[in-house]
Amino acid sequence: MMECKKASLDEYEKLVIRMNTPRVVIDNAVCVTSTLVKVDSARKHGVLLEAVQVLADLNLSIRKAYISSDGRWFMDVFHVTDENGEKLEDESLIAYIQQTLCATSTDGSDGEEGLTVLELTGTDRPGLLSEVFAVLADLQCDVAEAKVWTHNGRIASLIRVRDGDSGSPIEDSVKIDRIEARLKNVLKGDHDVRSSAARTAVSGGVTHAERRLHQIMFSDRDYERAAAAARPSVSVQNWVERGYSIVNVQCRDRRKLLFDIVCTLTDMEYVVFHATLDTDDDKQARMEFYIRHADGSPISSEAERQRVIQCLQAAIERRASEGVRLELCALDRQGLLSDVTRIFRENGLSVTRAEVSTAGDSARNVFYVTDAAGHPADPNSIEAVRQRIGGFGSLEVNYDPKLTYRRPQTDADETAGGSVGLFSLGSLVRRNLYNLGLIRSCS
Prior knowledge:
- Helix content is 35%, strand content 31%.
- By secondary structure, it is α+β, with helices and mostly antiparallel strands.
- The radius of gyration is 23 Å and the shape is globular.
């Protein structure tokens, strides 16, 4: 009798596992120009973000997407291409995507083990990053990885370091306190009336780096400050009959765009029930999200509606780096980043975004730079930097044009445009989802 009960329990556990493990289908035959990635999974908070995060981490471009929740089940359909705009043909990559999407992750941590993580936030200014790396070099901290974002006059950074002498995580509380004190002084500067902070945490339970950067800047309320004149077009309307709030977004397409938006909605405790994404030949992305609060209610006030608009605009803008892209490949050594960013500062260049990685003895560092006033960098300054860095590394310069957005909306545009989005894009979403069998009715 006990054996029968145990067998029944085992079968039940297997059923639960099967029901909660996402089912992934990757198909190259459906679409001529992109690979179809279809994910079916039980609905839970954050499951959409987990799927989008996997694709974003592989630098895949999502050209189209259809997302729908039917009861307790989610169906996500993504049309993706690789970094060259081609369909996915690498069988090992396809197998990795299937394996990763089927895994039941929760927080999506990343980064190398055995590192101490520094979280930095404060008021941005020319030369700040140079000062930060100079402090770390002076304190014998080797930078293994780093991501730096700037937006609306603020800076957020996630820096993974190890002890320069032992190569181990920095666990000495006295040294950690000294690092925090020195970095806080650098971040505070002479004119920062707001509190700045340098926080430390040992890696292992660290949130996905780019998601964490969004969270840091969101907590810093960077979305409240004056931004560039041209902003992404975001509108929010309530569909009262169905109890949804509908968010429409139109902006320049780029990699990880969907991740940035879904990440922000998730961290603001909204649930995406249905969504669509489409891009055109002019690299413009049009997205629509049917959302509710975690308790099932739609957006309830004008203040909340404006906050959603501001936060999504900020999420899109944070990664849309302006400036010249500089990629440095060099032998890794202690103080490398301090030397490189000091050369930038001495030649009047300011870093707007940075991504640092190391592999063995090699370092690959990507910087986006402008002049000290945020204007396009002088080519002569870029050439001077290239000449000076040439002694210890290879610096590749890429003068990509700046990302541009649609003109900012006026209040009248948001009212009128929002209605247009609700009845034109909204109808398109419902029709596409119906044709895919993702909803029962398109009316």
